[in-house]
Amino acid sequence: MKNAKNRVTVAEKTIKNLKRKVIEIASKSGEDHHIASAFSIMDILWVLYEKILSIFPNKPQHPERDIFILSKGQASLGLYAILHEKGFFDTKTLESFSKYNSILGGHPMKNTKVGIESSTGSLGHGMPIAVGIALGLKIQNKKQKVFVLIGDGEANEGTVWESALLSSHHKLDNLCCIIDHNHSTDRALSIDSMKDKFESFGWKVSTVDGHNHKEIEKSLRTKHPKHPLAVIANTIKGHGVSMMKDNPAWHRKSPNKEEFELIMKELN
């Protein structure tokens, strides 16, 4: 039991450190960024890269690697922080974020040499890319898995549901779509009964607390033969920082000096 508690503590400390790194990098860039969106998915990313994905940081283009695509590209800082933590690139590269000629743009730009599998940003595009890759792997009888993380706002895009239908038709049981369900777009258009919708398209579906590591891991390990898997992760935008939590003002914003100090203290 003691070891289990220690593991949880290590995970929590790691995620706080990742969030601190996101704040530092965003602040140094001198521009506004989607920090709250990155914090919404940080627990999911940590579980994926720590527990689920078969990755090879020293050989990032390894032919047997699993594929992860961040479709909600505005949360790129979260992805970059975890890739840096896992050793895909050095601190100098991370600190070049969003600068001229940097390989780390405000939205992901495909560069498999550093673990970025696809360019994304325009909502709804990551899902069909993931489906295409999963279908190609299936045709070649390869064992890798494909994971794509979309935002709930992306579920308003027709490409998501066209992809969902296609992947079910082809029985892509090597595909998992994680939905970051932080409800931030409910004011404009709420996607009710997300679980029912995916199930009606022939998917295996589970719903989890998107900040509970055990629930996330258990769900991502769910067996789903002959069906793609959808994991609906209920999350909080800006999770972990009180001034950001569900605060629309932080949709695209970097902290001023006073906010920076308060946030770093809270994440200490």
Automatic annotation (TrEMBL):
The lineage of its organism: Bacteria, Candidatus Zambryskiibacteriota. It comes from the Bacteria. Residues 22-257 form the Transketolase N-terminal domain. This is Transketolase. It comes from Candidatus Zambryskibacteria bacterium RIFCSPHIGHO2_02_38_10.5. Pfam families: Transketolase_N. CDD domains: TPP_TK. Signal peptide: none annotated.
